[in-house]
Amino acid sequence: MFSYEYVTEEQLAGFDKYKYSAVDTNPLSVYVMHPFWNSVVKILPTWLAPNLLTFCGFMLLVLNFCMLAYFDYNFYASGEGYEHVPSWVWGVAGFLNFTAYTLDGVDGKQARRTNSSSPLGELFDHGLDSWACVFFVVTVYSIFGRGEAGVSVFTLFLILWVVLFSFILSHWEKYNTGILFLPWGYDISQVTTTEQRHPLKRLSN
Predict the structure, then answer these.
(1) How many domains does the chain divide into?
(2) Domain that holds residue 23
(3) Residue 26, in any domain of the structure
(4) Is residue 61 part of a domain?
């Protein structure tokens, strides 16, 4: 396994010719989020590495997962007759999720702003995004929970695969076309999830 050549010399040479190309037609991204991210990236110091932004955003999602895993380890907390997640947890979860989403949106802009864009940076970014799919979906499951009023674990499994398949399909399309067409569902899910967690705080009182 350690002696296997995962990347050939020819593939490594292709890194020098690689150029990032993406298309985002989502109105929410174009008219709301990108202008917001453009404003945020201007206040970041130029010495701040884009990969650090990527990693910090990912770790916020991991922290979200760990926090809700502690307060809702069996996904029954939202069900009737169980001890609900404290109100402040939902507020923190929404804040961490939106902050992670923002960092994921500005890391590429910071890279282009500081002339530090690279194929390895994109690989690092999207590699962590693939893992974030798992943490994000499982964390969102705490909103609905299990039981009669919630959704089944099998449904969670299917949702997880839908998210992962969308992610893989987008990158497979990019592999063949050279252009990453960003799915609309990503931005919509991030914003709506952040908003959903706020009113649910009232249910835990």
Answers:
(1) 1
(2) 18-43+72-183
(3) yes
(4) no
Torsion of CA 23, 27, 32, 35, to 10 degrees: 30
Q: Tokens standing for 81? A: 């007759």
Catalytic residue positions?
126
Tokens of 44: 């970041």
Cα separations in angstroms, 114 against 44, 103, 117, 152: 11, 16, 8, 46
Q: How do the pLDDT tens digits run along the chain, 205 residues long?
A: 677 777 788 877 777 777 788 888 888 888 999 999 999 999 999 999 999 999 999 999 999 999 999 999 888 887 778 888 898 998 999 999 999 999 999 999 999 999 998 888 888 999 999 899 888 888 888 888 887 778 888 988 888 888 888 888 888 888 888 888 887 666 656 655 555 554 444 444 4
The SS3 assignment for 63 reads helix
Token pair listed for 146: 């299990």
**In the chain, beta strands by DSSP E:** 22-23, 180-181
pTM comes to 0.82
* Beta bridge pairs of residue 180: 22
Question: Could you tell me if 37 and 108 are in contact, meaning their C-beta atoms sit under 8 angstroms apart?
Answer: no
Residue 152 placed within a domain:
yes
Helix (H) or strand (E) holding 176: helix 153-177
**Residue 130 placed within a domain:** yes
